[in-house]
Design goal:
about 0% helix; about 110 residues; globular; four-stranded antiparallel β-sheet; mainly beta
């Protein structure tokens, strides 16, 4: 069992930046893959980026080149640096690992 807490969301103008954080607790030693997902109103939850304990990363095509995922391996805290934000990025962003989800943090991008 892993508990996940996201933070860092907020309101930003188009072209701006935000950094999201995900702090895990509980049985964190078995964590390998972690990822960020997002869900906009009326849309399905979608993968944004994922990272393994070895540092291998995967990005959705819509965010590639603008977002960067990283993690602190000893603590397994995960980050999502979001640059060049667009209104289309507006969504609730969720941290995920081993079938567990965080509560989500709202990101709103205004034009």
């Amino acid at each position: 069992q892993v508990q996940l807490v996201e933070s860092g969301g907020g309101l930003v103008q188009a072209g701006g930046s935000l950094r999201l954080s995900c702090v895990p607790s509980g049985s964190i030693f078995s964590i390998n893959v972690m990822g960020w997902y997002r869900q906009a109103p009326g849309k399905e939850r979608e993968l944004v980026a994922m990272i393994t304990s070895g540092g291998r990363t995967t990005y959705a095509e819509s965010v590639k080149g603008r977002f960067a995922i990283s993690r602190d391996n000893p603590k397994k805290t995960m980050y999502l640096q979001m640059n060049g934000l667009k209104p289309e990025d507006t969504a609730v962003y969720y941290c995920w690992t081993r079938g567990d989800w965080g509560q989500g943090t709202q990101v709103t991008v205004s034009s």
